[in-house]
Design brief:
alpha/beta; 476 residues; Rossmann fold; elongated
């Protein structure tokens, strides 16, 4: 049984999401010795094992006592019944050969079932811990320490903050169900965002002493099936006069919240799971949140009245959204051959600039109107005659403006074969461009976006159908 499947099974069997932390702080010990650590941990384990989905010993408190402390760690893990998973909080992460030694220590020497991992060095630093599907890892994603945001909120080349990129990519480092994420209970907003990106188990420390609250954390991080979240509490249990009663009370609180959420979920209309990749799903939602896509009644340049209006000029007003939008083009660029990017005025110019920065590719752009002074250039930027350019645009409707821009580029001695756009309105652009000898590549079709928004509840079924009908009636 894969490690996360084991968590599922035990959570259902004893109806708990409590992970009991074994953090023998010196002030909690009757005697500050290895023997004092052992007695402390055994007391917590004996008192709470009826309520614990898992135990999480923090290796630092054992290492502090040297070889004797590590011997106590081994004894503590052996004392925990085999049916209860043990997560060793060690935050490992190093080159493959070193990580392999760490994995051997965690699983074969100390006898843990899972270990926490720092993802900074990438997948190969995690691979040795994934050799056996019965073992698991919890990858640091959004931690609860005060300065975590200094790095974890930084945007990546994908446009996503670092912690969200980890949430999207790290669970896919194994084909087995053995990778969870560490997301602090002190940040319910981050928990909710991570839960929207992955269904894997979340280890959520920070309740109690660090300021996290049980109910906001559970509401944000729980899966739709009522599982998928380990609520980690250590000092809140260890400091209680009766740790067993404290653990029981916490489990009852958690299950009361789970029950309320389950009842509320049963009254909601059923929605499905988006077919978009997680990072694209986040971008699709952001386009609505930032007003780049609106629904209602809009008169278009053609005179038609449309139930949807797409204004991607608004992307430039939000740097994070601009970076995220640009990043969505990159996978399409990797399969194409070109010397330079050519962004079409006007909406695609800031997007093209962001793509150029992220991809490291030079950018030019064709002018809509040739200047009557200076160089009188029809194409701005440096280029050489005979080079192949990849055209970028924000939106494709009929394709006429793209054919005109390609003509300007060709008149300047450049070759154009491929055009990449963010959204294809599916109003005939692809067909018109193909007839003219161009290939169009698309991040989203409007049909894909409508399906996602309908499934996520962002738009009603009636609105989505109205847009589909409009598209069918106006297709070239």
């Amino acid at each position: 049984m894969d490690f996360l499947e084991r968590l599922d099974a035990r959570a259902k069997e004893i109806d708990t999401l409590l992970c009991v932390g074994l953090d023998p702080h010196p002030e909690l010990l009757e005697e500050e010795t290895p023997q004092g650590v052992l007695l402390f941990c055994k007391h917590i384990i004996e008192s709470t094992l009826r309520f614990a989905l898992a135990f999480k010993p923090n290796i630092a408190f054992f290492e502090a006592y040297g070889p004797e402390g590590l011997a106590v760690l081994q004894e503590v893990i052996e004392f925990i019944p085999d049916r209860i998973p043990v997560i060793l909080d060690a935050k490992r992460g190093d080159i493959f050969s070193t990580a392999k030694a760490y994995a051997h220590a965690a699983f074969d020497v100390w006898g843990a079932d899972a270990v926490t991992i720092n993802p900074f060095m990438g997948k190969d630093a995690a691979d040795p811990f994934l050799a056996n599907p019965e073992h698991g890892i919890f990858i640091l994603c959004k931690t609860s320490n005060p300065t975590a945001n200094d790095l974890q909120l930084q945007p990546t080349i994908s446009g996503l903050p670092l912690y969200q990129k980890i949430a999207v990519e790290a669970p896919g480092w194994s084909e087995h169900k053995q990778i969870g994420l560490v997301v602090g209970a002190t940040d319910p907003d981050a928990l909710q965002k991570v839960r929207g990106l992955t269904d894997t188990w979340l280890l959520a420390p920070g309740v109690g002493a660090q300021g996290g609250k049980i109910e906001p954390a559970i509401r944000a991080g729980l899966r739709a099936d009522g599982l998928g979240m380990l609520v980690t509490i250590s000092r809140g249990i260890a400091r209680a006069p009766d740790p067993g009663l404290a653990a029981q009370d916490i489990v009852e609180q958690i299950n009361h919240i789970r029950g309320k959420l389950a009842r509320r979920q049963s009254t909601k209309p059923l929605v499905g799971k988006s077919t978009l990749e997680p990072s694209l799903a986040v971008l699709a939602d952001a386009l609505i949140q930032h007003g780049c896509v609106r629904f209602g009644s809009f008169t278009l340049k053609s005179g038609l009245v449309s139930p949807i209006y797409i204004d991607l000029r608004r992307v430039v007003s939000n740097p994070g959204l601009l970076a995220q939008t640009a990043a969505s083009y990159l996978p399409l660029l990797r399969g194409l051959t070109f010397d330079r990017l050519a962004a079409l005025p006007y909406a695609a110019l800031p997007i093209g600039t962001a793509v150029s920065l992220q991809a490291g590719c030079p950018l030019i752009y064709p002018r809509r109107e040739v200047k009557e002074y200076g160089t009188r250039a029809s194409v701005e930027g440096g280029f050489n005659e005979g080079e192949r350019v990849l055209m970028l645009d924000d939106l494709a409707t009929t394709g006429g403006s793209k054919i005109e821009a390609a003509g300007t580029l060709k008149a300047a001695g450049l070759e154009v074969e491929d055009i990449v756009v963010l959204i294809d309105r599916q109003s005939g652009a692809k067909e018109m461009l193909e007839e003219a000898g161009f290939r169009m590549h698309t991040v989203f079709t409007l049909t894909q976006l409508l399906e996602h928004w309908e499934l996520s509840g962002a738009v009603s079924a009636e609105t989505a159908e109205e847009v589909r009908t409009f598209l069918a009636d106006t297709q070239v």
